[in-house]
Each structure stands twice: as C-alpha cells, then as structure tokens.
Design a protein that fits this description.
Two copies of one chain form a homodimer. The first copy, chain A, has helices at 24-27, 30-44, 59-70, 125-136, and strands at 8-11, 19-22, 51-55, 73-77, 87-93, 98-104, 113-121, 140-150, 164-170. Chain A is an alpha/beta fold. Chain A has a single domain (47-170), classed as 3-Layer(aba) Sandwich (Rossmann fold). In chain A, the strands form three sheets. Chain A has a five-stranded parallel β-sheet with strand order 4-3-7-8-9, with helices on both faces. Chain A has a two-stranded antiparallel ribbon with strand order 1-2.
Chain lengths: 173, 173
C-alpha cells in the first residue's frame, strides 16, 4: 500500500500559507496503521534498542506500539509542566520565539540505546533538542524515525550525525 | 508482576494537596509495559472492536499499541485547536470552569464498535464527553479501559451504562 495516499492535505492549517499533513486518515485505516508500524519496526529491529522515546503528542501513538514490538520500555518527551518528577529541559528556536521540551532525569540510563520517534520532521528543532536530552542522560541515539519528512525544510541537516529514517517524503508543499 | 508497584506517587503535583500517580516509571519498565498492554488487550479481544480511540495525550501511548494488537484503526480525541479537519466538540465541567475535547467528524463510521482508552479515571468528565462524541458520530462504545482508577472520586458513576475496566485501583489518596 502507498502510505502517502492515506495522508490528507489541509491547506491553511494551522495558519495561512501552510499545507498541513493530516495523519489521522492513515491512523484510522487499520491496514495503513499496521503497515506503518511494521515498516517502522523493521527499520529498528536488530539494533539492540533498549528504550523507545516518543515526542509529545503524536509521537506517542506509534512510539508506544514500537516499544511493545521491540520489547523495550517507553519514555515520553513532553512539553513544559507536564512531567511530574525531576527533569531536565532543552530549549530550541522557532521562527518566532523559542520552545522547550523536557524528560525525566531517571528515564534514560547511561548506555541505553535509544530509538527516538515522532510523526513529522519539519525544521528538526524539536528532534535536535530531544537528542541533546538523551545524550545529557548518557543514552546513545541509535535511530531516529519519522512517519513524514518535509524534505524541503532541510531538518535532516540538523540531525546529520544520526541514523534518520522517514516513511513518507514531501519535496515541496 | 504487581503493576501498582511500578507507579510513582508525586505529592503536591500539579498542585498542593494532590498526590499525582506517575505512570512513567511503569512505561519505562519493559516488562511492566508489556504486561500492561497484554492485560488491556485481553480485556478487549474477541469483542468485535473496529476502532480504538485514545484520549490526548497519555491515552495515545497504549491506545496506538492496542489498535495494532486488535487489528483496528486508531482515532485521537484531542484538545481544542489540534485537529486540522472538520470536527465536533464536547465540553464538560471541571472543578473551576469547563474544558473541551474534539474528534474529526469522519473518524468514526456509523456502526463502528469502539474501545475508548485513557490512562486515568478521576472524575470521569473527560471520558463521559468522549463517549458522547463517539455516539454523536453513530459509533457504539463497546468498552472503556483505563490504566488507573481513583475510585474515591467516583468517576465510574458517570460511565455506569458502559463496560468500564481499570488495571490499578486506588481507594484513597
């Protein structure tokens, strides 16, 4: 199945000039859901991964399922104020202003081999910050996977030292 | 394994007087994660479920994994402004003020047999609103599952016409 056919374009969301890639049409298709997970799993299996880290909140959907299939624990990276225990944070630049993500300081053990997962690679700022969080805690980023990559935004350049995979690529809006 | 032992109490989060039940210690334990998913799956299998609906955002973690194991599609119920396509919404009362959740109007087909999942049953307001969303779209709520139930808050009373299950129960704070 061509997974790209299950993605819905939403022009003008969240604001004028943006064409949003809506994954809910893929998620609700049981064959599309299964195939997506299988492809993400195949990319990551056999690499000795010990933790799957999902980025809030769409990264939780396949992230949890990947943890189960890879037989690892799952760790959420969240927006500020959501995690209740001791945590570390990392800020990154947006077009206007900055944003911050957090992780519990006991979520990664030194030596953990980590798969980072999110639904979308755009400018790469969030994922670059997530990698820093993992490494601050002594983990190794073994793989990064995305459902969708907006290649024209060149987010991959910020992640060039990592093994980065995306299932669906868009070369232009 | 006693799953309750993997839950961490955080007194005073998110505010004074609340003891927050932190599930991240369970999520990051690979055996705890696997057992939780297995128990949730066993509750739901054989019931003809056609869609798993997860509530933003911790409900996405096991919700996605359940969709894969049950061989169904996955549907997110989200906070306002997150879903990009045509949607319906439902508001519910909080201690102070109201809150709102949304679902895409094409996410559920008439006749869909739905498993609703979230991590925590407290007062039940969010889940009651989610049930209304499913039913407005013509779906049938076949089961509701939670990882944790705070039984002393009596949220189950608001869901009494449904088949409600929780893996871990707390009778008091």
């Amino acid at each position: 199945m061509d997974l790209e056919k299950l993605i819905r374009d939403i022009p003008g969301f969240p604001k004028e000039g943006i064409v949003f890639k809506d994954i809910t049409t893929l998620l609700m298709d049981k064959d599309g859901f299964k195939q997506t997970l299988e492809e993400l799993y195949n990319l990551a299996s056999g690499k000795g991964i010990t933790k799957v880290v999902g980025i809030e909140s769409r990264g939780f959907i396949f992230g949890g399922a990947l943890a189960e299939k890879l037989d690892t624990g799952f760790v959420p990276v969240r927006k500020p104020g959501k995690l209740p225990y001791k945590k570390i944070s990392e800020s990154y630049e947006l077009e206007y202003g900055t944003d911050t993500i957090e992780i519990h300081e006991d979520a990664i053990n030194p030596g953990d081999k980590v798969l980072l997962h999110d639904d979308l690679l755009a400018t790469g700022g969030t994922m670059e910050a997530a990698c820093k969080l993992i490494e601050k805690l002594g983990g190794e980023v073994v793989q990064i996977s995305f459902l969708i990559e907006l290649t024209f935004l060149k987010g991959r350049n910020r992640l060039e030292k990592y093994d980065v995979h995306s299932l669906i690529n868009y070369d232009s809006e």
